[in-house]
Amino acid sequence: MEDIKKTCLHQRHVEAGAQMSPFGGFDMPIQYAGITEEHNAVRTACGVFDVSHMGEVNISGPQAEEYVNHIFTNDVTGAPIGQIFYGMMLNHQGGTVDDLLVYKRDENNFLLVINASNIAKDVAWIESNAEGYDVEIDNLSDELSELAVQGPEAEKVMQEVLGINCAELKFYTFKEELLDGVHILVSRTGYTGEDGFEIYAPHDAIVEMWDALMESERAMPCGLGCRDTLRFEVGLPLYGDELAEDITPVEAGLSMFVKTDKPEFIGKDTVARQKAEGCSRKLVGLELLDRAIPRHGYEVLNNEGTVIGHVTTGYRGISVDKSIAMALIDSRYAAKDTELSVQIRRKQFPARVTGKKFYKKSYKK
User: Fold this and answer.
1) Which of 98, 120, 150, 255 is least surrounded, with the fewest CB atoms within 10 Å of its CB?
2) By the 8 A CB rule, do 245 and 96 touch?
């Protein structure tokens, strides 16, 4: 069995009594006080997450912009320094290798933030497709750690507890600066539907910031359990559920992040055709007309009892108090308010198609 990794905050989590579980090859905190309490803290005040398991890859050199555009569905051409882009890397069939964030650090210098479970695969993919490009690829995943400070009070907490002024940062922008002599990168994106920030820094600095946040009692420690409920309620995808090697971003309803009007990129032919002609499958929201809870993998059926797809993520929504799901289904049944059912154990529960955003986002504009 492969050795499980630990973040620089692992001992802090254990000492705090967090429920730990393997995730993406790391031993990660799932919850502290409880998923519901942590979820509500992020919605109403401030929560802090250890997301040091995420991977970071830097691409630099004279052809860095050209190469990033070759492997990335979004278009970074001519972007201002400090801009962040969301998008995907695709395989040659148009399936999703990973979804990621791309940070433009300087002219021809880009930081890619990738999912923990895909670090080795992604790095191999990035390196294998770089032939012919004058670029340097640096895997920084073992050198950096990351905190996510999320919630309507996040900006105040960043300023008053950590001494990091973020008021000037707009949504999907970042800055780099020295904090007590240590180089840090601070961004304003979020994966919770609330205003929030990410801090990338060396391990020791992240430990010091975590300790300061805990001592201040201004931010509740949060595990990956509520990170999932929070992102799901606002319709954000999770790799392995809503996106995968056999699920294209167009099928997942993420066409706006696929710029088929730019020059050739890996997987373009498939997603361009899907954007033009439509897909046989589509990711939709479902609301169950019952309190039963749908889970990943549960079958979705039409009114004739035929299986037409499966649930990708499902919960009893904490902020909306409804049994809700995202599901990848036959596109013929994807129209809003279509009546379907979900197989939960031995019983079928009625459901109707809705939008994927069950809760209104509260990002900083």
Assistant:
1) 120
2) yes
Helix axes 224-233, 35-44, angle to 10 degrees: 60
CB 242 within 8 A of CB 68: no
Phi-psi region of 202 (alpha: psi -120 to 50; beta: other; left: phi over 0): beta
Helices of type H across the chain: 10-15, 35-44, 64-71, 119-128, 154-162, 203-216, 224-233, 268-277
Q: How many residues does the chain have?
A: 365
User: What strand order describes the sheet that includes 220-222?
Assistant: 174-179, 182-187, 196-201, 145-150, 47-50, 220-222
**Segment 94-114 mean pLDDT:** 98
Estimate to the nearest angstrom the gap between the alpha carbon of 157 and the chain centroid: 23
Q: What string of DSSP letters covers 156-201?
A: HHHHHHH----TTPPTTBEEEEEETTEEEEEE---SSSB-EEEEEE
pLDDT digits (tens, 9 = 90+) for 215-267: 999 999 999 999 999 999 999 999 999 999 999 999 999 999 999 999 899 99
Query: Token pair for residue 268?
Result: 């373009």
Unique residue bearing structure tokens 């890397």: 89
What is this structure's pTM?
0.97
